[in-house]
Design brief:
The complex is a heterodimer. By secondary structure, chain A is an alpha/beta fold. Chain A contains 17 helices and 9 strands. Chain A is globular and about 60 Å long. Classes of the chains: A alpha/beta, B alpha+beta. Chains A and B meet through helix 1, helix 3, helix 4 and helix 17 of A and strand 2, strand 3, strand 4, helix 1 and helix 3 of B.
Chain lengths: 395, 109
């Protein structure tokens, strides 16, 4: 995040405004991705009226970036009614996350008409036999790629999201080439999220340390490899006062059942919009305020870690490990793969394991890079000297 | 001198944050912010009120500013925002259809 968006986020933080909210409209899906963390049954989704009411409350609360996701959003029969409602106020910058297999020319045109900012589409491989084996839907790659072409033909911004796992580890360059051919952006993410019920077996699909090291040393992804893989210098005191991330500070997540969480990857219940006003939850939930109170200096193991100044520790993943003030092992592994230096958390676990007679740092295998070249949002600054400032200069 | 009319592009997202207008252009995902004065012009861009009237009523009335200079600056701002397609400008009043899907011919813009 750079420039104006960073400035606006800082302002929103100061004013306690939820600038960015992701709403999952459904957990139902027409794909069955092997790594997915969701249970695809409908346990009582919010109705059309409830979601519209939530949008009204979010507008009142100051939300600007509204991401509609799922599950598969196009399985909601009222999807376009909801999208139209969201855009009618012209306040929300709407982003969509979808597998896109239900998007044809007509849907693409409707999305264009409604002024959607971007559409993020999951592509796992440029090879149908790999992509379709992950989604478990034959023909799904072709459907998704066709949809990207329809959306691009409408002049829309499309971002391919490429989740990296054992099955598609060798294909990320092919996906990037496909993105180039289609004229769209591409992001790469090796994070596998534990299942919503806490089952962590799915994490075994994550790429290993060696593969992660290979990704971090790919200059086409990270730019200057030496700089990217360098161990950060000791952080100053200011860095220890930093916020761990935007979850609960300027961003939050609402499930299809109305539950509000700090982030989609941070399943700490803070309230439900079916019972409370969205803004009341945002401002007054004890859990939200607890998340908000955490500073880097409060992190139990991480403050003594050599990576504390550069780690992309996810508090949600730490929470799912049992302590939102603790380390996130996936991010420790990432820092290790990037620099070759084990984290304080890994060393502590190593000592414990040694005492018990087993362990091998090299066997651990997960990570979540935030790659410099894989930004989801492009921001360009309108120079202050343009017309925006002109009238006031004469005032 | 001909009149200039301005209308906000219905495909952008805009909202005020602490007195500044944030505008996200759907065309190329560019974020703009407008200062308080420019925000006044943006909010008054209804397609029906000519720019000189907006400047007279909303800018000169509120700020101690030379009218011709303010109009010149406002016109420059309007043209700048129009190049980014977040504002439409015309010498005729602008009528915009309500934002809704399903009306598209499917043509690329």
């Amino acid at each position: 995040m750079t420039g104006l968006l960073e400035e606006m986020t800082a302002k929103a933080l100061k004013l306690n405004i939820p600038l960015s909210v992701q709403v999952d409209l459904t957990y139902r899906c027409n794909e069955r991705c092997v790594h997915c963390y969701l249970d695809h049954h409908d346990h009582g989704e919010m109705s059309t009226a409830e979601i519209k009411h939530l949008m009204d409350e979010m507008a009142e609360a100051g939300v600007f970036i509204l991401t509609l996701s799922g599950g598969e959003i196009f399985l909601r029969k009222d999807f376009f009614e909801l999208l139209e409602y969201a855009r009618r106020k012209r306040m929300f910058c709407v982003k969509l996350k979808t597998n896109a297999i239900l998007i044809r020319e007509q849907e693409a045109a409707r999305i264009r008409d409604l002024g959607v900012e971007s559409i993020q589409i999951s592509i796992y491989s440029h090879r149908p036999e790999v992509h379709d084996a992950i989604t478990l839907i034959p023909g799904s790659l072709k459907r998704s790629v066709d949809a990207i072409r329809f959306l691009k033909a409408q002049g829309l911004r499309v971002v391919i999201a490429n989740v990296l796992m054992i099955q598609n580890m060798q294909d990320y360059k092919g996906v990037r080439a496909l993105a180039d051919e289609l004229g769209v952006e591409c992001t790469l993410d090796p994070t596998i999220t534990p299942m919503m019920d806490g089952d962590r077996a799915v994490l075994n699909l994550g790429v290993g340390n060696d593969a992660l090291r290979q990704v971090f040393r790919d200059a086409s992804l990270v730019g200057d490899v030496d700089e990217f893989c360098a161990v950060a210098t000791n952080p100053d005191e200011d860095a220890l006062e930093n916020l761990p991330c935007s979850a609960g500070h300027t961003a939050c997540y609402v499930s299809p059942y109305g539950d509000v969480y700090p982030c989609v990857q941070f399943p700490l219940p803070t309230g439900n919009v079916r019972q409370q006003h969205f803004l009341d939850i945002w401002r007054h939930s004890d859990q939200m305020n607890d998340v908000r109170s955490i500073r880097v200096k409060d992190l139990s193991t991480c403050t003594s870690c050599s990576h504390v100044g550069s780690c992309t520790r996810c508090p949600g993943l730490a929470f799912m490990e049992g302590n939102m003030r603790g380390a996130s092992t996936q991010d420790c592994q990432k820092s290790f793969a990037r620099t070759g230096v084990p984290s304080a958390n890994m060393l502590a676990k190593q000592r414990t394991a040694d005492n018990m007679g087993y362990s091998n740092l090299g066997q651990t295998s997960l990570g979540q890079p935030s790659l410099g070249s894989a930004s989801l949002v492009q921001i360009r600054v309108l120079p202050a000297s343009t017309g925006a400032a002109a009238p006031s200069a004469t005032a | 001198m001909s009149k200039l009319y301005m209308a906000r592009n219905p495909r952008v997202a805009a909202r005020s944050l602490d007195g500044e207008m944030m505008i996200m252009s759907g065309r190329d995902s560019t974020l703009f912010t407008l200062n308080r004065t420019a925000t006044i012009l943006w909010q008054a861009a209804d397609g029906a009120t000519p720019l000189d009237e907006i400047v007279e009523l909303r800018i000169c009335h509120e700020f101690d500013v030379d009218r011709s200079q303010a109009l010149q600056d406002a016109e420059s701002l309007a043209r700048e925002l129009a190049t980014h397609e977040i504002l439409q400008i015309s010498e005729e009043p602008i009528t915009q259809p309500a934002l809704q899907s399903g009306s598209s011919t499917g043509e690329a813009r």
